[in-house]
Amino acid sequence: MRSLLCLLLYFTGLAWAEKSFYQAELIFPQEKWHNHGSSIVELPQGGFLACWFHGSGERKADDVVVLGAHKSKESEQWSKPFIMADTPGFPDCNPVLWVDPQKRLWLFWIVIVANEWQSCILKYRTAFDYSSFGEAPQWNWQDNIIMKPENFTEALKAKWPLFLKEFPNQIPDLNKKTFPELTADEEIYHYVEKKGDDKLQQRLGWMTRIQPIVLKSGKWLLPLYTDAYSVSLIAMSSDKGKTWQASSPLLGFGNIQPSLVERKDGSVVAFMRENGPRYRIRFCESYDQGMTWGDVTNLDIPNPGSSVDCIALKNGNWVLVYNDTIDKRHQLKASLSTDEGKTWQWHRYLEKVPKREGSFSYPSLIQSQNGELHLTYSYQAKGGKSIKHVAFNEAWIREN
Length: 400
Description:
Layout lengths: L1 H10 L10 E5 L7 E9 L5 E8 L9 E7 L10 E4 L6 E8 L5 E8 L7 E8 L13 E4 L7 H15 L20 H9 L3 H5 L9 E2 L5 E7 L4 E7 L7 E2 L8 E8 L5 E7 L5 E7 L10 E6 L6 E4 L5 E5 L8 E7 L8 E7 L5 E10 L5 E9 L2 E9 L1 H5 L2
Antiparallel strand pairs: 1-24, 2-3, 3-4, 4-5, 6-7, 7-8, 8-9, 10-11, 11-12, 12-13, 14-15, 15-16, 16-17, 18-19, 19-20, 20-21, 22-23, 23-24
C-alpha cells in the first residue's frame, strides 16, 4: 500500500515522496588538456556512454578529438577513454550522443576547417552495435548534414535594424577594424553587415550542442546554432534521420545553443544561451512543430554566456541546468518547474565556488529509465580539467 501511494504521488508531480539521492564522480582524473562539451546517453542494455572533445584547443590547434567512456550498471567507475571521432589534421568538437526510438546510437559533431567555429562542417555517424564495454561503437554509417535555410537573408535583414536600435553603443566601426581584430562579441556585426547575404556562410558553420528531441507526432528536432550570425536553427526530420530540413531561424542576435522541450499542448520551446549584451537566458516558442518560431525574448534568469539544458521528466515536470551568474561560470544550478517553465519553484546548486576558483559549464542532462537524472558537464578547478558525472533525483532538488 505504501509503495502504491509513493508511485501515485510521484506521477502526480509530488516527487518529494522519494528519498533524496545524489552521487558524483569525475569520468577521468583532472589534467591540463582542454576537455569540454560533453554529452551522455543511457544504453538500452544498461549503463551509460559519455563523450566530450579533448585536445590543445580548437581555436589554435588541430589535435582535438572526440573521446568517449562507458559506465556499466555494476561499476561505479568509468572505463578508460577511447576515440569516438578523429578527423586527422582537423579539430573535432561539440559532440552530441543520442539513442533514437529504434535503439540506434547517433553521434553528431562538427569538424572545424579553419580554426574558427564559422568554418565547421556538421557530421554524424550511427551504430546498431555499441555494446562492447570500454570500446568505441561499431559505426555502420557516416555522413554530413548540410543546412539550406530558406529566406534567411530576408529574415536577417528584417530583424537587424531592431537590434541596432536596441543596442546602438554595441556597434563597432567596421571600417577601423579588420575581422581578426574584432572581439567575439563584435563578430556578429561583421557577419550581418558584411556577409548577411553570403550563401556559403548561411549553409556552413551550423553546430550541435544539445540532444535532439522526438515530438509526439514522431518528428525529430535537432537544435543547431551558428556563431557567424549568432542565431539558432532547427534541423527537422520526418523520415528517421534520412533527410533533414531547416526551420526558419530563431533570430534574437545572441541566442545560441538551443535546448528544446515539447509542452503537453504540442508547442515547442527553446531555452538558449545569451551570446550578446543581455546576460539573460533567451527563450522562443514554436506552434507548428519547430518549422517557424516567434520572437526571441529574455527570461528573468541570469546567463554569463554559457550553455543551458532543459528536459521534461516522465511525470511532466521540467528541470533546467544553467550557470546562474552574469560573469564567469563558477556556479551551476538545477531548477525544477511543475508548470512547464512558467515558474521555477525549487533550486539546488550542483557547484558553487568563489569566482575564478572554478568553472562548471555545458551541461548535458537526461532522465534514466529508473527515473534518476544523469548529468555531465565540463569541470575545471584547482588540479586541472575533466568531465564530471552527477546522478540525482527530483527529491534532491526539492530538498533545498
